[in-house]
Design brief:
- The protein has a two-stranded parallel ribbon.
- The protein is mainly alpha-helical and about 150 residues long.
- It has 7 helices and 2 strands.
- Helix 3 packs across helix 7, helix 4 packs across helix 6 and helix 4 crosses helix 7.
- The protein folds into 2 domains: about 70 residues, Rossmann fold (3-Layer(aba) Sandwich); about 60 residues, Orthogonal Bundle (Arc Repressor Mutant, subunit A), CATH 1.10.10.10.
């Protein structure tokens, strides 16, 4: 199996390890193809030891960051799954950026009731503020908040 076949098969199997191509006969189009398909880097032999170690260290760091982000997403999903159906509705509306009065109108509830559900969902999510709750909800749904 060649490098591109291995890369495709790993992707098909859901492997998300950062890949570094090392080739004795690479060229720019091949390197571009590897990078566009998700490789972290493409090195051509012979490669200096220091360069190889730098690239491998970068790959390991990238994998550590990816794993940490995945753990955070899983924890956010677990927290979101702990919400009651009404709290989940309020969470969805918070993610849309609606104010309490608009949430109340949409749900057919009083603003005070919406505030009660929001307070409960903040507690369940372990968030101190609505902004922090929205970050958790966005992470669970893999939505990157706009800064």
């Amino acid at each position: 199996m060649g490098g591109f076949e291995v890369q495709r098969e790993l992707a098909r199997r859901g492997c998300r390890l950062p890949l570094v191509f090392l080739s004795g006969h690479g060229d720019i189009p091949i390197a571009v193809q590897a990078i566009q398909a998700g490789a972290l880097d493409f090195l051509e032999k012979p490669v200096r030891d220091l360069k190889l170690f730098e690239v491998l260290e970068r790959a390991l760091e990238e994998d550590r960051r990816r794993q940490a982000a995945e753990r955070a997403r899983q924890e956010a999903r677990r927290l979101l799954d702990s919400l009651s159906p009404r709290e989940a509705e309020v969470a969805d509306l918070m993610l849309e950026g609606l104010r309490t009065a608009d949430m109340a109108a949409r749900l057919g509830l009083s603003p005070r009731t919406v505030e009660m559900h929001r307070a409960r969902l903040l507690r369940r999510l372990g968030a101190r503020t609505s902004v922090e709750a929205v970050r958790i909800i966005g992470a669970a749904r893999e939505i990157v908040p706009k800064s």
